[in-house]
Amino acid sequence: MAPMTLHPDSLAVHAGRDDLASLGVHALPLDLSSTNPLPGIDVGGMSYEVLASGGHPFDGGSHVYARLWNPTVARFEEALARLEHGEEGVAFSSGMAAMTAVLLAVAHESGKHHVVAVRPLYGGTDHLLASGLLGIETTYCAADAVADAIRDDTALVILESPANPTLELVDIRAIVAVAAGVPVLVDNTFATPVLQHPLDLGAAMSLHSATKYLGGHGDVVGGVVACDARTAAALRRTRAITGAVLHPLAAYLLHRGLSTLPVRVRAQQESARVVAQWLRTRPEVTRVHYPGFAECDPLGLVGTQQAGPGAMIAIELGGGFEAASSMTAAVQLFTHAVSLGSVDSLIQHPAALTHRPVQSEARPTDALVRLSVGLEDPADLVADLTHALTSIDADSRVRVAATAN
Ligand SMILES: *Cc1c(COP(=O)(O)O)cnc(C)c1O
User: Fold this and answer.
1) Which domains does the chain have, with CATH numbers?
2) What GO MF annotations does this protein's record show (predicted)?
3) Could you tell me if the CB of 166 is within 6 A of ligand 1?
């Protein structure tokens, strides 16, 4: 087979499976060994040395210990790297573990301890940077202020596009240009490699909370970074030292989930289009944040940078926090829960939940509700949201009546 010629949908099904036929199996093997037999002290020691410093296993060597190497995890990493157009992938126990390893590795490799972060960002990422826990100083800025924020000691620029939770789009190529050689990390969790390839646009790293679309079934927590081979070695070394490895069962589920990623993302995207257009007609909704609407994409990035608008929507409710509270309590088909990208639809209030740790000046408005559209029939989703939005009116009528008394 000539794997480089495969189209993305075929890659999603076949990537990272090159060794299966030689193993005599068809489905992905799940290797749960925490430790591995050593061929001898010398070769074992050499294997340890190579793997702990971020290298690959060599012929006749051992995988030594599961914190250093696991074949099930490595197959998932290979598949994800192919889908992201990266040389290699490095997987972690969560998206935040991946982000932490990136920050530690980049600061260590460059000797620089300053990061520029384009807001908005996922609340956990914003919090990690603001916490100072890693000894890294952060300058937050808007996309058009990155050039001014970069300093001599800047090790990394971090951005999300579409950004969590308001789905703002950032021109990745433009940020790479003004970063002038400082590596740019794009959190590609919302777009997925089905819609966007940050590495092709000049980003040094494409990071995922694999917990979301890559897993896609709400039953795995994981993170992964696609990048060049040199960066991957630094990340594997950091992972070996700090220990935030992905469990092989999680890697198995993530790799299995990749097969259907393109189909899921396209189907969810089509439903989200229907739901977003319908939301725009509702009197309770004062604003719909959805990259498929021209007013949300002033730079025209959907169709160029990003193949489609994706399946995430955020809305602002005229009734503010109380309306959000009524709506999230009233849904029956959507689940009121954090996270996103699953086959089932989720709804949550970013200011109270996912973005709670964000400093107040950057926290999303209390009127904002975020929706992750799943694989249900969009007519059922619209019916559920109709019921939920109607309950806002009912709740506020009850309140008005109570006040009048
Ligand atoms: C959820 C999320 C993360 C964090 O990932 P975890 O797997 O929850 O640690 C990072 N970035 C984005 C955009 C997310 O939505």
Assistant:
1) 8-33+70-258 (3.40.640.10), 261-404 (3.90.1150.10)
2) cystathionine gamma-lyase activity; homocysteine desulfhydrase activity; methionine gamma-lyase activity; pyridoxal phosphate binding; transaminase activity
3) no
